[in-house]
Structure formats: structure tokens, C-alpha cells
Amino acid sequence: MPIPTHVGIIMDGNGRWANKRGLPRTAGHKKGTETLKKVLKTARETGIKVVTLYAFSSENWSRPKEEVETLMNLFRDYLKNDVNELLKEGVRISFIGERERFDDDLIEKMNQIESQTKDLNGFHVVLALSYGARGDILKAVQQLAQKVKSGMLDPNEIDMGQFSSHLSTAQIPDPDLIIRTSGEQRISNFLLWEMAYSEFYFTPVLWPDFDEKEFKKALADFELRHRRFGNIS
Ligand code: FPP
User: Fold this and answer.
1) Beta strands in 45-100 (DSSP E)
2) Within-domain flag for 190
3) 176 is annotated as an active-site residue
4) Residue 87 and residue 31: Cα distance in Å, rounded?
5) Nearest atom of ligand 1 to the alpha carbon of 55
6) What is the CATH number of the domain that holds 104?
């Protein structure tokens, strides 16, 4: 049975989950953190090698101050406490996104976790925090332009591999499967370059309700896909 090597997840619907229950949106994010932990456990047990979680987009900074603050505290708590379980199990953890926009203690924690686990080659969790694919692509373009300007690079040498190596996902294989919960069917600036040949799975289930059974449904659906990568079968 074909198992995706890399699964990207757009964890959507925390706010609606809370609203439906008359709870503050932050309660949805808290429950969403529990879902995240369970999904990572299932992914690892299933044999998936990489999971990228879209936890906070570059655009999410414009949400109300209290919501941003709650999310920051959830990330803080996750990185300082919950993550220890993954560390004990030898999981590699890395971060993509504009790290410099976070508070110093969070930046320090991200750097520390990343360097502590960088040589591990088992299960790999990538947290997309303050991430936006267009911004990531622009940064790569700027780096390449600098190299051309300084005479280090001939523009004709810029091929897809060269370009990919300047993205924050350079060390990560392209996602095979992208899951988005909550019924929205859009990409929202997630891994635009990397998902050129990804399969998509959209489910109406809200992220806090996305349990092991729902995840396995997504994997079973992936199993039925015929991937041709532009070729014929
Ligand atoms: C989208 O739902 C979700 C987010 C913007 C935050 C995702 C965060 C978590 C799942 C929890 C914490 C993550 C870590 C890494 C500890 P939404 O708020 O846009 O929901 P809505 O569309 O229903 O309003």
C-alpha cells in the first residue's frame, strides 16, 4: 500500500469548532493542539517520514491581538513542554517561516530544538510558523539575485534544483499529500512551489475533530490515487 513520504496539513477550523460550542476561539486552538499530538503519533506509526503542519501563516499576525497572544502562548507551551515527548523519541523537528518575528525566547527555543535534532534521520516534523510560500519564494529570488550580482552565479545555471535549494524547505522532500480540514478548498499560501505534484485531500471535519479515523481515511484515499507526474500511466 503506497504511504505518502511527506504529508502537509492545513489545520483549519479551530475557531468554528469553538463557536459551535459557545466557547471562545482560543478553546478551539487548545483542542487543536491535542489533535496535532495525536495525528503526529498516528503518522509516525503509519510509516510516514515527514509531516509539515501549517500552524501560523504570515497573514495570521493580523488577527486580533488577544488571539495572536493565545496562539503564541500555545506555541510556547508546546515547544517548552509537549515537544519533549517527541525529543525523547528521536524525532527531528524543524521550523519554516519568518522566525525573526517571534519573541526572543521562542526564537531561542526553535533554534535549540532544531540544532539538537538536525542530524536525526527518522520521523521529521516541520512546523510552519509565520510562514507564507510567496515570501519564501521571494527570499529565494533575492538570494539568487545577490549571487548573480556578485558574479558567483550565471543566470543560465538557475535550474529547478538550484532554485529549490534556496527555499526554507530545501532539506525536505516535496509533499505527496496535502490535507486541509474544515471544508475550505484553498491553499492559503502554503508550500506553493513544493506542491506542484501533490495530491489533495479536503475534508469538512474541523481540525479539533480530526482524529485517527479521519486521518486514516485520508491515507486510504491517497492509496487510490494514480500519480502520473505529468506522464502517462
Ligand atoms: C486555523 O483555524 C488554525 C490556526 C490559525 C492555528 C493552528 C494552531 C493549532 C492547531 C494549535 C497549536 C499549534 C501548535 C504548533 C502547538 P482557524 O482559527 O482559522 O479556524 P476558523 O477558520 O474556524 O476560524
Assistant:
1) 50-57, 92-96
2) yes
3) no
4) 22
5) 7
6) 3.40.1180.10
Residue 101 domain-assigned (yes or no): yes
How remote is the CA of residue 182 from the centroid of ligand 1, in Å?
A: 11
Nearest-angstrom CA–CA distance, 231 and 219: 23
Tell me the percentage of the chain whose pLDDT exceeds 90: 95
Q: Which domain holds residue 97?
A: 6-131+175-221
60 catalytic per annotation? yes
Q: Could you tell me if residue 157 is inside a domain?
A: no
Q: Is the CB of 127 under 6 A from ligand 1?
A: yes
The single residue of 14, 19, 60, 111 carrying the catalytic annotation is 60
Please tell me which residue in 12, 14, 136, 176 is annotated as part of the active site: 12
Mean pLDDT of the 204-212 span: 98
pLDDT 10s digits, 53-84: 999 999 999 999 999 999 999 999 999 999 99
Tell me the best of 12, 82, 109 to mutate to test the pocket of ligand 1, counting ligand atoms within 8 Å of each CB and taking the most: 12
Task: Count how many domains the chain has.
Answer: 1
- In terms of Cβ atoms closer than 10 Å to its own Cβ (0-12, 13-18, 19+), residue 112 is exposed
In angstroms, the CA 129 to CA 11 distance is 12
User: Is residue 203 one of the residues assigned to a domain?
Assistant: yes
Does position 1 have pLDDT exceeding 70, yes or no? no
